[in-house]
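Q: Give me the 3D complex with L-homoserine.
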Amino acid sequence: MSKTLRLSILGAGTVGGGVLALLRENADLLQAQTGKSFEVRHVLVRDLQKPRAAITDPKRLTADPQRAIFDPKVNVVLELMGGLEPARTLIRDALQAGKHVITANKLVMAVSGDELIRLAHRQGVRLLYEASVAGSLPILNALQGALAGNRISRVVGIVNSTTNFILREMERAVDSDAPAESAYDAALRKAQENGYAEADPSSDVEGYDAQYKTAILARLAFLQYVPLESIYREGITHLSGRDLLWAQRLHMGLKLLSISERLPDGRLCARVHPTLIPRECPLYVVRGAFSGVWLQGNGFQEMSMHGFGAGARATASAVIGDLIEIARHPKPLKMEDPSLRAGETAPIESLTMRYFLRLVAPDEDALRTLREPLQQLGAEFQPSESVAQGIEQVALTPPLNEGEFQTRIAPLRTETTLQVIRLL
Ligand code: NAP
Ligand code: HSE
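A: Here is the predicted complex, encoded as C-alpha coordinates.
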Protein backbone atom coordinates (compact mmCIF):
# COMPACT_ATOMS: atom_id res chain seq x y z
CA MET A 1 0.00 0.00 0.00
CA SER A 2 1.35 3.42 -0.95
CA LYS A 3 2.15 6.19 1.50
CA THR A 4 -1.18 7.88 0.75
CA LEU A 5 -4.58 6.29 1.29
CA ARG A 6 -7.18 7.69 -1.08
CA LEU A 7 -10.72 7.79 0.16
CA SER A 8 -14.24 8.04 -1.19
CA ILE A 9 -16.73 9.13 1.44
CA LEU A 10 -20.34 8.24 0.65
CA GLY A 11 -22.42 10.78 2.60
CA ALA A 12 -21.56 14.17 4.11
CA GLY A 13 -24.27 14.39 6.76
CA THR A 14 -23.73 14.10 10.52
CA VAL A 15 -21.20 11.22 10.40
CA GLY A 16 -19.59 12.10 7.04
CA GLY A 17 -19.20 15.71 8.20
CA GLY A 18 -17.64 14.55 11.48
CA VAL A 19 -15.19 12.29 9.64
CA LEU A 20 -14.13 15.06 7.25
CA ALA A 21 -13.57 17.43 10.20
CA LEU A 22 -11.57 14.89 12.25
CA LEU A 23 -9.47 13.86 9.23
CA ARG A 24 -8.47 17.50 8.83
CA GLU A 25 -7.97 18.32 12.52
CA ASN A 26 -5.97 15.18 13.29
CA ALA A 27 -4.04 14.79 10.02
CA ASP A 28 -0.65 14.98 11.79
CA LEU A 29 -1.75 12.44 14.40
CA LEU A 30 -3.00 10.03 11.73
CA GLN A 31 0.31 10.37 9.93
CA ALA A 32 2.16 9.61 13.17
CA GLN A 33 -0.09 6.63 13.94
CA THR A 34 0.13 5.02 10.50
CA GLY A 35 3.03 6.56 8.60
CA LYS A 36 0.51 7.44 5.90
CA SER A 37 -1.44 10.45 4.74
CA PHE A 38 -5.11 10.40 3.77
CA GLU A 39 -6.56 12.12 0.74
CA VAL A 40 -10.30 12.54 0.24
CA ARG A 41 -10.93 12.16 -3.50
CA HIS A 42 -14.73 12.04 -3.61
CA VAL A 43 -17.61 12.90 -1.32
CA LEU A 44 -20.91 11.48 -2.52
CA VAL A 45 -24.12 13.43 -1.71
CA ARG A 46 -27.64 13.69 -3.10
CA ASP A 47 -27.89 17.46 -3.21
CA LEU A 48 -24.88 19.26 -4.70
CA GLN A 49 -26.33 22.68 -3.87
CA LYS A 50 -26.73 22.16 -0.10
CA PRO A 51 -24.35 24.36 1.94
CA ARG A 52 -21.87 22.15 3.85
CA ALA A 53 -19.52 23.48 6.50
CA ALA A 54 -17.44 20.28 6.42
CA ILE A 55 -16.52 20.60 2.73
CA THR A 56 -13.47 22.76 2.11
CA ASP A 57 -12.95 21.65 -1.50
CA PRO A 58 -16.32 21.62 -3.36
CA LYS A 59 -14.64 20.00 -6.40
CA ARG A 60 -14.59 16.75 -4.38
CA LEU A 61 -18.39 16.66 -4.18
CA THR A 62 -20.22 14.34 -6.54
CA ALA A 63 -23.70 12.95 -6.94
CA ASP A 64 -22.39 10.09 -9.10
CA PRO A 65 -21.85 6.89 -7.07
CA GLN A 66 -19.97 5.21 -9.95
CA ARG A 67 -17.36 7.94 -9.89
CA ALA A 68 -16.90 7.56 -6.14
CA ILE A 69 -16.73 3.75 -6.14
CA PHE A 70 -14.84 2.89 -9.31
CA ASP A 71 -12.09 5.54 -9.32
CA PRO A 72 -9.02 3.25 -9.65
CA LYS A 73 -7.00 5.53 -7.36
CA VAL A 74 -9.38 5.04 -4.42
CA ASN A 75 -8.27 2.45 -1.80
CA VAL A 76 -10.96 2.86 0.86
CA VAL A 77 -14.69 3.55 0.53
CA LEU A 78 -16.44 4.90 3.64
CA GLU A 79 -20.19 4.27 3.48
CA LEU A 80 -21.79 6.90 5.73
CA MET A 81 -25.04 7.50 3.90
CA GLY A 82 -27.40 5.11 5.70
CA GLY A 83 -30.46 3.11 4.59
CA LEU A 84 -30.47 -0.35 3.03
CA GLU A 85 -30.30 0.63 -0.63
CA PRO A 86 -28.37 1.92 -2.48
CA ALA A 87 -25.87 1.66 0.44
CA ARG A 88 -25.69 -2.16 0.37
CA THR A 89 -25.18 -2.34 -3.39
CA LEU A 90 -22.49 0.34 -3.24
CA ILE A 91 -20.65 -1.55 -0.48
CA ARG A 92 -20.87 -4.73 -2.55
CA ASP A 93 -19.63 -2.90 -5.66
CA ALA A 94 -16.73 -1.38 -3.73
CA LEU A 95 -15.67 -4.76 -2.29
CA GLN A 96 -15.95 -6.37 -5.71
CA ALA A 97 -13.78 -3.58 -7.11
CA GLY A 98 -11.11 -4.51 -4.53
CA LYS A 99 -11.60 -1.53 -2.20
CA HIS A 100 -11.55 -1.73 1.59
CA VAL A 101 -14.85 -0.61 3.06
CA ILE A 102 -15.74 1.08 6.33
CA THR A 103 -19.41 1.48 7.19
CA ALA A 104 -21.49 2.93 10.06
CA ASN A 105 -24.61 1.27 8.67
CA LYS A 106 -26.19 -1.14 11.21
CA LEU A 107 -29.15 -1.89 8.96
CA VAL A 108 -26.93 -3.17 6.15
CA MET A 109 -24.65 -5.08 8.55
CA ALA A 110 -27.60 -6.65 10.41
CA VAL A 111 -29.37 -7.73 7.23
CA SER A 112 -26.45 -8.56 4.90
CA GLY A 113 -23.35 -8.53 7.11
CA ASP A 114 -22.59 -12.23 6.67
CA GLU A 115 -22.67 -12.06 2.89
CA LEU A 116 -20.57 -8.87 2.79
CA ILE A 117 -17.97 -10.16 5.27
CA ARG A 118 -17.54 -13.31 3.17
CA LEU A 119 -17.24 -11.20 0.02
CA ALA A 120 -14.56 -8.99 1.63
CA HIS A 121 -12.69 -12.09 2.68
CA ARG A 122 -12.80 -13.58 -0.81
CA GLN A 123 -11.60 -10.27 -2.27
CA GLY A 124 -8.72 -10.00 0.20
CA VAL A 125 -9.92 -6.62 1.46
CA ARG A 126 -11.21 -5.40 4.79
CA LEU A 127 -14.76 -4.52 5.80
CA LEU A 128 -14.88 -2.75 9.17
CA TYR A 129 -18.00 -1.45 10.92
CA GLU A 130 -17.13 -0.36 14.48
CA ALA A 131 -19.29 2.79 14.19
CA SER A 132 -22.40 0.74 13.47
CA VAL A 133 -22.85 -0.17 17.16
CA ALA A 134 -22.72 2.22 20.12
CA GLY A 135 -20.94 5.13 18.39
CA SER A 136 -17.55 5.78 19.96
CA LEU A 137 -17.38 2.59 22.05
CA PRO A 138 -14.82 0.07 20.73
CA ILE A 139 -17.10 -2.84 21.53
CA LEU A 140 -16.87 -4.70 18.20
CA ASN A 141 -13.08 -4.47 18.28
CA ALA A 142 -13.07 -5.75 21.86
CA LEU A 143 -15.27 -8.74 21.00
CA GLN A 144 -13.13 -9.65 17.99
CA GLY A 145 -9.81 -8.90 19.66
CA ALA A 146 -8.92 -8.64 23.32
CA LEU A 147 -12.03 -10.52 24.54
CA ALA A 148 -12.18 -13.11 21.74
CA GLY A 149 -10.78 -15.87 23.97
CA ASN A 150 -13.76 -15.77 26.31
CA ARG A 151 -16.98 -17.70 26.18
CA ILE A 152 -19.45 -14.82 26.41
CA SER A 153 -22.60 -15.61 28.35
CA ARG A 154 -24.46 -12.30 28.27
CA VAL A 155 -24.30 -8.90 26.56
CA VAL A 156 -26.52 -6.16 27.95
CA GLY A 157 -26.42 -2.77 26.28
CA ILE A 158 -27.92 0.66 26.00
CA VAL A 159 -27.22 0.80 22.29
CA ASN A 160 -29.55 3.56 21.16
CA SER A 161 -28.53 7.01 22.34
CA THR A 162 -31.59 8.84 21.03
CA THR A 163 -33.95 6.86 23.26
CA ASN A 164 -31.57 7.10 26.23
CA PHE A 165 -31.48 10.87 25.70
CA ILE A 166 -35.29 11.05 25.52
CA LEU A 167 -35.72 8.94 28.67
CA ARG A 168 -33.27 11.19 30.53
CA GLU A 169 -35.18 14.32 29.49
CA MET A 170 -38.49 12.70 30.57
CA GLU A 171 -36.87 11.83 33.91
CA ARG A 172 -35.80 15.46 34.37
CA ALA A 173 -39.36 16.59 33.60
CA VAL A 174 -40.69 14.21 36.26
CA ASP A 175 -38.17 15.66 38.75
CA SER A 176 -39.41 19.16 38.04
CA ASP A 177 -43.12 18.22 37.90
CA ALA A 178 -43.30 19.18 34.19
CA PRO A 179 -45.32 17.02 31.74
CA ALA A 180 -43.06 14.15 30.63
CA GLU A 181 -44.98 13.73 27.37
CA SER A 182 -44.02 17.21 26.10
CA ALA A 183 -40.47 16.51 27.32
CA TYR A 184 -40.54 13.44 25.01
CA ASP A 185 -41.41 15.57 21.95
CA ALA A 186 -38.86 18.27 22.79
CA ALA A 187 -36.12 15.69 23.46
CA LEU A 188 -36.76 13.90 20.16
CA ARG A 189 -36.49 17.23 18.33
CA LYS A 190 -33.24 18.00 20.15
CA ALA A 191 -31.86 14.53 19.35
CA GLN A 192 -32.59 15.22 15.67
CA GLU A 193 -30.94 18.67 15.83
CA ASN A 194 -27.87 17.19 17.52
CA GLY A 195 -27.58 14.51 14.83
CA TYR A 196 -28.23 11.57 17.21
CA ALA A 197 -31.46 10.37 15.61
CA GLU A 198 -31.80 8.30 12.46
CA ALA A 199 -33.12 9.93 9.26
CA ASP A 200 -36.43 8.23 10.19
CA PRO A 201 -36.51 8.56 14.00
CA SER A 202 -39.18 5.87 14.34
CA SER A 203 -36.22 3.49 13.87
CA ASP A 204 -34.89 4.81 17.21
CA VAL A 205 -38.08 5.12 19.26
CA GLU A 206 -39.67 1.88 18.02
CA GLY A 207 -36.49 -0.10 18.79
CA TYR A 208 -35.49 -1.10 15.23
CA ASP A 209 -32.08 0.60 15.44
CA ALA A 210 -31.36 -1.26 18.71
CA GLN A 211 -32.58 -4.50 17.11
CA TYR A 212 -30.10 -4.14 14.21
CA LYS A 213 -27.28 -3.42 16.67
CA THR A 214 -28.29 -6.41 18.77
CA ALA A 215 -28.00 -8.68 15.72
CA ILE A 216 -24.46 -7.39 15.07
CA LEU A 217 -23.38 -7.63 18.72
CA ALA A 218 -24.84 -11.10 19.25
CA ARG A 219 -23.22 -12.38 16.07
CA LEU A 220 -19.76 -11.33 17.25
CA ALA A 221 -20.24 -12.20 20.92
CA PHE A 222 -21.68 -15.68 20.36
CA LEU A 223 -20.30 -16.49 16.87
CA GLN A 224 -23.78 -17.44 15.86
CA TYR A 225 -25.96 -16.08 13.11
CA VAL A 226 -28.88 -14.30 14.73
CA PRO A 227 -31.73 -13.59 12.29
CA LEU A 228 -33.31 -10.19 12.88
CA GLU A 229 -36.77 -11.72 13.13
CA SER A 230 -35.64 -13.85 16.07
CA ILE A 231 -34.88 -10.70 18.12
CA TYR A 232 -37.86 -9.51 20.17
CA ARG A 233 -38.35 -5.74 19.75
CA GLU A 234 -40.29 -3.16 21.71
CA GLY A 235 -39.62 0.60 21.68
CA ILE A 236 -40.25 3.43 24.15
CA THR A 237 -43.33 5.11 22.65
CA HIS A 238 -45.74 3.53 25.16
CA LEU A 239 -43.79 4.73 28.23
CA SER A 240 -45.15 7.62 30.27
CA GLY A 241 -43.89 10.00 32.95
CA ARG A 242 -45.63 7.82 35.55
CA ASP A 243 -43.37 4.88 34.59
CA LEU A 244 -40.29 7.03 35.14
CA LEU A 245 -41.66 8.36 38.40
CA TRP A 246 -42.30 4.81 39.64
CA ALA A 247 -38.83 3.73 38.52
CA GLN A 248 -37.41 6.43 40.81
CA ARG A 249 -39.69 5.49 43.70
CA LEU A 250 -38.59 1.86 43.36
CA HIS A 251 -34.90 2.93 43.23
CA MET A 252 -34.47 1.68 39.69
CA GLY A 253 -33.53 3.09 36.29
CA LEU A 254 -35.67 2.73 33.17
CA LYS A 255 -33.64 2.07 30.00
CA LEU A 256 -34.21 0.65 26.54
CA LEU A 257 -31.97 -2.42 26.75
CA SER A 258 -30.51 -4.80 24.21
CA ILE A 259 -30.01 -8.18 25.91
CA SER A 260 -28.44 -11.25 24.30
CA GLU A 261 -27.73 -14.32 26.36
CA ARG A 262 -26.88 -17.98 26.08
CA LEU A 263 -29.57 -19.98 27.91
CA PRO A 264 -28.69 -23.06 30.00
CA ASP A 265 -30.08 -25.29 27.20
CA GLY A 266 -27.58 -23.76 24.73
CA ARG A 267 -30.05 -21.63 22.78
CA LEU A 268 -29.40 -17.94 22.23
CA CYS A 269 -32.06 -15.42 23.20
CA ALA A 270 -31.82 -11.79 22.01
CA ARG A 271 -34.30 -9.03 22.76
CA VAL A 272 -34.81 -5.27 22.89
CA HIS A 273 -37.31 -3.70 25.29
CA PRO A 274 -37.66 -1.08 28.03
CA THR A 275 -36.24 -2.57 31.23
CA LEU A 276 -36.11 -1.57 34.87
CA ILE A 277 -32.59 -1.99 36.21
CA PRO A 278 -31.34 -1.81 39.79
CA ARG A 279 -29.01 1.00 40.89
CA GLU A 280 -26.15 -1.51 41.26
CA CYS A 281 -26.27 -2.32 37.52
CA PRO A 282 -23.29 -0.70 35.74
CA LEU A 283 -25.69 0.67 33.11
CA TYR A 284 -27.67 2.66 35.70
CA VAL A 285 -25.25 5.60 35.39
CA VAL A 286 -25.38 5.63 31.57
CA ARG A 287 -27.52 8.67 30.85
CA GLY A 288 -28.41 11.03 28.03
CA ALA A 289 -26.74 10.58 24.62
CA PHE A 290 -24.42 7.93 26.05
CA SER A 291 -24.45 4.27 25.14
CA GLY A 292 -23.14 1.52 27.37
CA VAL A 293 -22.37 -2.18 27.18
CA TRP A 294 -22.08 -4.62 30.09
CA LEU A 295 -20.61 -8.02 29.24
CA GLN A 296 -20.17 -11.29 31.06
CA GLY A 297 -17.67 -13.94 29.96
CA ASN A 298 -15.93 -16.93 31.47
CA GLY A 299 -12.46 -15.34 31.60
CA PHE A 300 -12.85 -11.64 32.32
CA GLN A 301 -16.00 -12.31 34.42
CA GLU A 302 -17.62 -8.96 33.76
CA MET A 303 -16.82 -5.68 32.12
CA SER A 304 -18.62 -2.52 31.14
CA MET A 305 -17.90 0.52 29.02
CA HIS A 306 -19.85 3.65 28.24
CA GLY A 307 -19.44 6.85 26.26
CA PHE A 308 -21.07 8.91 23.52
CA GLY A 309 -23.10 6.55 21.36
CA ALA A 310 -24.06 9.00 18.64
CA GLY A 311 -23.25 12.38 17.14
CA ALA A 312 -20.80 13.62 14.54
CA ARG A 313 -17.47 13.53 16.35
CA ALA A 314 -18.06 10.49 18.57
CA THR A 315 -19.10 8.38 15.60
CA ALA A 316 -16.28 9.79 13.47
CA SER A 317 -13.86 8.60 16.18
CA ALA A 318 -14.91 4.99 15.52
CA VAL A 319 -14.75 5.44 11.73
CA ILE A 320 -11.26 6.95 11.92
CA GLY A 321 -10.19 4.09 14.21
CA ASP A 322 -11.22 1.66 11.46
CA LEU A 323 -9.31 3.73 8.92
CA ILE A 324 -6.14 3.59 11.03
CA GLU A 325 -6.59 -0.17 11.35
CA ILE A 326 -6.80 -0.55 7.55
CA ALA A 327 -3.75 1.67 7.07
CA ARG A 328 -1.79 -0.51 9.49
CA HIS A 329 -3.15 -3.92 8.48
CA PRO A 330 -4.58 -3.92 4.97
CA LYS A 331 -4.74 -7.72 4.75
CA PRO A 332 -7.80 -9.39 6.28
CA LEU A 333 -7.10 -11.38 9.41
CA LYS A 334 -8.76 -14.70 9.97
CA MET A 335 -10.55 -13.45 13.09
CA GLU A 336 -12.56 -11.05 10.96
CA ASP A 337 -14.35 -13.99 9.43
CA PRO A 338 -15.31 -16.17 12.37
CA SER A 339 -16.99 -19.39 11.33
CA LEU A 340 -20.51 -18.90 12.58
CA ARG A 341 -22.08 -21.81 14.40
CA ALA A 342 -25.50 -22.86 13.29
CA GLY A 343 -27.24 -22.56 16.62
CA GLU A 344 -30.79 -22.40 17.78
CA THR A 345 -32.35 -19.17 18.96
CA ALA A 346 -34.96 -19.03 21.70
CA PRO A 347 -38.00 -16.74 21.66
CA ILE A 348 -38.53 -14.33 24.54
CA GLU A 349 -41.43 -16.57 25.65
CA SER A 350 -38.84 -19.12 26.90
CA LEU A 351 -37.55 -16.73 29.56
CA THR A 352 -38.49 -16.32 33.18
CA MET A 353 -38.37 -12.82 34.66
CA ARG A 354 -40.01 -10.32 36.97
CA TYR A 355 -42.39 -7.58 35.85
CA PHE A 356 -43.45 -4.11 36.92
CA LEU A 357 -47.18 -3.61 36.43
CA ARG A 358 -49.03 -0.27 36.39
CA LEU A 359 -52.79 -0.41 36.33
CA VAL A 360 -55.04 2.59 35.74
CA ALA A 361 -58.81 2.20 36.01
CA PRO A 362 -61.68 4.67 36.18
CA ASP A 363 -62.90 3.45 39.61
CA GLU A 364 -62.13 1.00 42.42
CA ASP A 365 -64.40 -1.77 41.01
CA ALA A 366 -62.66 -1.74 37.64
CA LEU A 367 -59.29 -1.67 39.38
CA ARG A 368 -60.19 -4.72 41.52
CA THR A 369 -61.23 -6.69 38.40
CA LEU A 370 -57.83 -6.01 36.94
CA ARG A 371 -55.87 -6.54 40.14
CA GLU A 372 -57.26 -9.88 41.34
CA PRO A 373 -55.97 -12.13 38.53
CA LEU A 374 -52.56 -10.47 38.88
CA GLN A 375 -52.52 -11.09 42.63
CA GLN A 376 -53.16 -14.77 41.84
CA LEU A 377 -49.87 -14.68 39.90
CA GLY A 378 -48.13 -13.40 43.04
CA ALA A 379 -48.02 -9.68 42.14
CA GLU A 380 -47.50 -7.55 45.22
CA PHE A 381 -49.32 -4.22 44.99
CA GLN A 382 -48.43 -0.81 46.39
CA PRO A 383 -51.30 1.30 47.82
CA SER A 384 -53.46 2.84 45.05
CA GLU A 385 -53.28 6.54 44.13
CA SER A 386 -55.62 9.00 42.42
CA VAL A 387 -54.41 10.18 39.00
CA ALA A 388 -55.99 12.29 36.25
CA GLN A 389 -57.49 9.21 34.52
CA GLY A 390 -58.85 7.58 37.72
CA ILE A 391 -57.02 5.28 40.10
CA GLU A 392 -53.51 3.90 39.62
CA GLN A 393 -51.89 0.98 41.35
CA VAL A 394 -48.52 -0.61 40.70
CA ALA A 395 -47.02 -3.98 41.56
CA LEU A 396 -43.93 -6.10 41.11
CA THR A 397 -44.33 -9.78 40.27
CA PRO A 398 -42.20 -12.72 41.33
CA PRO A 399 -40.27 -14.47 38.50
CA LEU A 400 -42.77 -15.71 35.90
CA ASN A 401 -42.49 -17.46 32.56
CA GLU A 402 -42.95 -14.81 29.83
CA GLY A 403 -45.08 -17.02 27.57
CA GLU A 404 -47.48 -18.05 30.34
CA PHE A 405 -47.57 -14.53 31.78
CA GLN A 406 -48.47 -12.92 28.44
CA THR A 407 -51.23 -15.50 27.87
CA ARG A 408 -52.67 -14.81 31.34
CA ILE A 409 -52.68 -11.01 30.96
CA ALA A 410 -53.93 -10.87 27.34
CA PRO A 411 -57.63 -10.75 28.37
CA LEU A 412 -56.87 -7.94 30.85
CA ARG A 413 -55.58 -5.62 28.13
CA THR A 414 -58.86 -3.81 27.46
CA GLU A 415 -59.40 -0.07 27.36
CA THR A 416 -58.13 0.00 30.96
CA THR A 417 -54.38 0.72 31.17
CA LEU A 418 -52.14 -2.20 32.00
CA GLN A 419 -48.53 -1.15 31.60
CA VAL A 420 -46.01 -3.99 31.76
CA ILE A 421 -42.26 -3.38 32.02
CA ARG A 422 -39.73 -6.17 32.42
CA LEU A 423 -37.08 -6.19 35.13
CA LEU A 424 -33.47 -7.14 34.43
P1 NAP B 1 -27.38 11.94 7.53
O1 NAP B 1 -26.98 13.07 8.39
O2 NAP B 1 -28.79 11.84 7.05
O3 NAP B 1 -26.40 11.98 6.25
C1 NAP B 1 -26.55 11.13 5.17
C2 NAP B 1 -25.66 11.63 4.03
O4 NAP B 1 -25.70 10.66 2.99
C3 NAP B 1 -26.09 12.96 3.43
O5 NAP B 1 -24.97 13.73 3.11
C4 NAP B 1 -26.84 12.55 2.18
O6 NAP B 1 -26.75 13.50 1.12
C5 NAP B 1 -26.10 11.30 1.78
N1 NAP B 1 -26.96 10.36 1.07
C6 NAP B 1 -28.00 9.65 1.57
N2 NAP B 1 -28.56 8.89 0.62
C7 NAP B 1 -27.86 9.12 -0.52
C8 NAP B 1 -27.96 8.66 -1.85
N3 NAP B 1 -28.90 7.79 -2.23
N4 NAP B 1 -27.07 9.11 -2.75
C9 NAP B 1 -26.11 10.03 -2.41
N5 NAP B 1 -25.98 10.50 -1.14
C10 NAP B 1 -26.84 10.05 -0.21
O7 NAP B 1 -27.06 10.56 8.22
P2 NAP B 1 -25.99 10.27 9.39
O8 NAP B 1 -26.63 10.58 10.70
O9 NAP B 1 -24.70 10.88 9.04
O10 NAP B 1 -25.91 8.67 9.34
C11 NAP B 1 -25.19 8.01 8.32
C12 NAP B 1 -25.04 6.54 8.69
O11 NAP B 1 -24.33 6.42 9.93
C13 NAP B 1 -26.36 5.79 8.92
O12 NAP B 1 -26.19 4.45 8.53
C14 NAP B 1 -26.55 5.87 10.43
O13 NAP B 1 -27.36 4.84 10.95
C15 NAP B 1 -25.10 5.69 10.88
N6 NAP B 1 -24.77 6.21 12.20
C16 NAP B 1 -25.18 7.44 12.56
C17 NAP B 1 -24.81 7.95 13.80
C18 NAP B 1 -25.21 9.31 14.24
O14 NAP B 1 -24.94 9.66 15.39
N7 NAP B 1 -25.84 10.12 13.38
C19 NAP B 1 -24.04 7.17 14.67
C20 NAP B 1 -23.63 5.88 14.26
C21 NAP B 1 -24.01 5.41 13.03
P3 NAP B 1 -27.43 14.96 1.24
O15 NAP B 1 -26.65 15.68 2.30
O16 NAP B 1 -27.28 15.56 -0.10
O17 NAP B 1 -28.86 14.73 1.65
N1 HSE C 1 -29.65 6.88 16.01
C1 HSE C 1 -28.58 6.16 16.62
C2 HSE C 1 -28.66 6.31 18.13
C3 HSE C 1 -27.26 6.69 16.11
O1 HSE C 1 -29.37 7.20 18.60
O2 HSE C 1 -28.04 5.52 18.84
C4 HSE C 1 -26.08 5.89 16.59
O3 HSE C 1 -26.06 4.62 15.99
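A quick observation: The two ends are 49 Å apart (CA to CA).
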